[in-house]
Specification:
Elements: E1 3-7, E2 13-20, H1 23-26, E3 34-41, E4 45-53, E5 61-67, E6 70-72, E7 88-91, E8 110-112, E9 124-128, E10 134-140, E11 144-151, E12 155-160, H2 162-167, E13 180-194, E14 199-208
Antiparallel strand pairs: 1-2, 2-3, 3-4, 4-14, 5-13, 6-13, 7-8, 7-9, 9-12, 10-11, 11-14, 12-13
Length: about 210
């Protein structure tokens, strides 16, 4: 924790967290890095800003980033997600064709979203690629709407494990899937390459409407 939580003159609450490389991280990933995570809480908005810095003088590194937003809802089957019509997505509930022996694992098959609004009625795990910077999710937070605004996050992940997959997740209740939907902003379909001395920054705003 670098700062806060602290009330700003505007009345907002701010907190800043950071994470740097250590012997522990080096045991898993041999790169120097620094991550900062800034959170601002307003009356009806949550602002999330993430920064990744490469302090190395020699070595670039690649990474992916995804901010997991779990929204409570009365009935996930009544939720609608806007801003995805015509977008290409990878369906991670399906497996692509196998390559020759020794080749990398198959990529999920790609499709184009043809619906004006996306609804869920089964296990869903989709990476929507190069999405608009704004989505509206309906029928969350006591039946209200949530506006999602993302900056420098090109991808949107829509996820719900549904009944069968929920039972396979140790920290997810067997009966919790009807009352949640994930609409996540991230850089998922392709990695970010961060050269020595460079920084990456992206932000997300969640607003109750």
């Amino acid at each position: 924790l670098d700062k806060g939580p602290e009330r700003l003159p505007s009345g907002d609450i701010e907190a800043i967290f950071s994470l740097c490389d250590s012997d522990f991280t080096f045991s898993m990933w041999q790169h120097h890095f620094r991550i900062s995570y800034r959170i601002i809480l307003r009356e009806k908005e949550l602002h999330l800003n993430i920064g990744v810095y490469n302090p190395s003088k020699e070595s670039p590194f690649d990474f992916n980033v995804l901010l997991h937003s779990y929204f409570k809802c009365p009935d996930v089957r009544r939720c609608q997600v806007t801003g995805l019509n015509g977008v290409t997505f990878l369906d991670r509930t399906r497996q692509g064709p196998e390559g020759p022996p020794g080749s990398p694992p198959p990529q999920p098959p790609a499709y184009q979203e043809c619906r004006e609004v996306v609804t869920l009625a089964e296990w869903t795990d989709r990476i929507y690629i190069n999405t608009p910077h704004e989505h509206i999710v309906t029928n969350v937070v006591s039946g209200r709407k949530m506006r999602i605004q993302k900056y420098n996050f090109p991808d949107t992940v829509v996820w719900n494990p549904w009944e069968q997959k929920a039972k396979e997740i140790s920290d997810f209740g067997d009966d919790e899937h009807p009352n949640m939907i994930c609409v996540n902003a991230g850089h998922v379909s392709t990695p970010v390459t961060l050269m020595p001395g460079q920084a990456f920054e992206a932000s997300l705003i969640l607003q109750v409407m």
